[in-house]
Design a protein that fits this description.
The protein is of the alpha/beta class. Helix content is 72%, strand content 10%.
Length: 379
């Protein structure tokens, strides 16, 4: 029962009840492997066979696609209860079959994910935290040495990069910092105005807003904004340089990455964040003034005079001192996470997110520490 298929021929010879021999001649290659597989399966099923012998003695050429088709026919017929055996394989064809792994080709099993027990998971997490802490200590030590060297040799500081970072962290962030602090002052004033009006203490809105913004809300909100905006940018920038091996190139050229990349960012952030905080404080007080004048019938002159009486240089200095440490924390954590990037883009995104979360966490912790210290020192 011959059947033409491009450049090969199939002949079926009945050898017994439910048994036959299929002889193949010609070429079986990538161009006709699919057709060959369909023909063998169709002939075997139509004849209702139980056992098939595939005679490949007359095959003149067989490539890897053809050999895969033969093995695929054997696998799929076995699934239908038909036994297929190969006969009279030429030496070259037999050698090619020996190179193919049937299990690998057709019986791939996806390995199950290894699930750790609770104790193992806790231990693995503890080890990861320990390694991260060790890396942080090493990084801070190297950073202190680099900062000391830069202060002793100011001519080696990359002032151009520092000025560019000051523009990105400070000037470019000024609109959003002023807007958010104005809205915070506005919101606090709205909430306070209801209570103060009941007791006829409208004028004390100025005291509440001024002290709250200068001592707590102004530095805190400004630092959180800078952490989300600039701290993440530091991590993404250095992380991308790590992935593209630019940091390794700097090291191979004899540059210290801390002095070259980190010091300008730290110095710029230290100078810019206190300035942003002062602008934020001013806009927060302006938000309180807006509510006081519109809802509590206060005069602008009276509100400003009460604010002046409520504030002192100690209050202003306490908020600015916080912002200096907040800025240092943001820059260090952003650069630290950037240097921890390993692998590709997924690592950059993950550690950029980690830089923002870690910076905000440390900012809040520092704010609590400063609050306790100010209470102890009666500031």
């Amino acid at each position: 029962m011959p059947e033409e298929a491009h450049i090969y021929q199939i002949t079926l010879e009945q050898t017994g009840e439910g048994e036959c021999t299929i002889s193949v001649s010609g070429r079986i290659d990538v161009n006709n492997a699919g057709t060959f597989l369909g023909n063998v399966e169709r002939l075997s099923i139509l004849q209702r066979l139980r056992k098939v012998r595939l005679n490949l003695a007359s095959v003149s050429y067989l490539d890897s696609a053809g050999a895969t088709a033969v093995l695929k026919a054997e696998s799929e017929l076995a699934a239908k209860g038909i036994a297929l055996t190969l006969e009279n394989l030429p030496p070259s064809v037999d050698g090619l079959f020996n190179l193919l792994d049937m299990d690998t080709l057709f019986h791939l099993k996806t390995p199950r994910a290894h699930r750790l027990g609770i104790i193992a998971s806790v231990g693995e997490k503890a080890i990861a935290i320990g390694r991260d802490a060790a890396y942080q200590i090493t990084f801070i030590g190297e950073l202190i040495m680099a900062l000391r060297h830069s202060l002793l040799h100011p001519g080696q500081i990359r002032w151009g990069s520092m000025m560019l970072t000051m523009q990105r962290v400070g000037v470019d962030a000024l609109p959003i910092v002023c807007l958010i602090n104005f809205l915070v002052g506005l919101t606090v004033s709205f909430q306070s105005a209801v209570t103060l009006r009941q007791f006829g203490a409208n004028i004390y809105l100025a005291d509440m807003v001024a002290l709250g913004m200068v001592r707590e809300l102004g530095p805190l909100m400004t630092a959180i904004l800078v952490a989300g905006r600039s701290g993440s940018a530091f991590a993404a920038e250095i992380g991308t340089m790590k992935v593209s091996e630019e940091v390794d190139a700097l090291i191979s050229m004899g540059f210290d990455p801390n002095r070259f990349l980190v010091i300008p960012k730290i110095l710029a952030t230290l100078l810019v964040v206190p300035s942003l905080t002062m602008f934020g404080n001013l806009l927060g007080i302006l938000g309180g003034l807006t509510v006081g004048v519109t809802l509590l019938n206060l005069t602008v002159a009276g509100y400003v005079a009460e604010t002046y009486n409520a504030l002192s240089l100690v209050h202003v200095f306490s908020g600015v001192l916080k912002s200096v440490f907040f800025g240092l924390t943001i820059a260090v954590i952003g650069c630290l996470r950037g240097f921890q990037v390993r692998g590709g883009a997924e690592s950059v995104g993950r550690l950029t997110t980690s830089s923002v979360v870690s910076a905000i966490l440390f900012i809040i912790v520092l704010d609590a520490i400063f609050g306790i210290l100010y209470q102890v020192w009666n500031i």
